[in-house]
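User: Reviewer 2 asked us to show a designed sequence for the structure in our supplementary figure. I'm pasting the C-alpha cells here. Could you produce the per-position amino acids so we can include them in the response letter?
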C-alpha cells in the first residue's frame, strides 16, 4: 500500500485540528505557542503534499517561508515568555489577563 495525497491531507487535517484544540483550550502561554506551531506544520504538510502531487515546487517554497516565519515567531515569542515569567512568575493565561499597561 502506497501513501496517496489523501493520506497526507488527512494527516494535515488531524494535525490542524489538534493545534486548533490547543489554541482554544489555551491555559498556558507556552502551550499556545506549541499549538500554533502544530497548525503551521499542518499547513506545511498540506502544501508539500499538494506540491508533490501537482509536480510544482511552489508549495515547497511556501513551506520553506512558513518555516522561516515560524522560527522567528519562536525566537521572539520565547523571549517574551521569559520576560513575562520573570515579571509574573507564571505563564497561566488566566493570571496574565490582569496585566496593566
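Assistant: Here is a per-position design you can include in the supplement:
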Amino acid at each position: 500500500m502506497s501513501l496517496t495525497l489523501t493520506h497526507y491531507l488527512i494527516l494535515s487535517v488531524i494535525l490542524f485540528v489538534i493545534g486548533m484544540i490547543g489554541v482554544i483550550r489555551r491555559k498556558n502561554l507556552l502551550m499556545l505557542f506549541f499549538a500554533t506551531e502544530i497548525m503551521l506544520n499542518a499547513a506545511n504538510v498540506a502544501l508539500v503534499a499538494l506540491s508533490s502531487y501537482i509536480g510544482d515546487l511552489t508549495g515547497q517554497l511556501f513551506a520553506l517561508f512558513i518555516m522561516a516565519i515560524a522560527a522567528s515567531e519562536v525566537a521572539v515569542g520565547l523571549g517574551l515568555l521569559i520576560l513575562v515569567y520573570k515579571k509574573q512568575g507564571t505563564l497561566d493565561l488566566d493570571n496574565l489577563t490582569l496585566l496593566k499597561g
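For the response letter, you might also mention the following. The chain has four helices and no strands. The chain has a mean pLDDT of 88.
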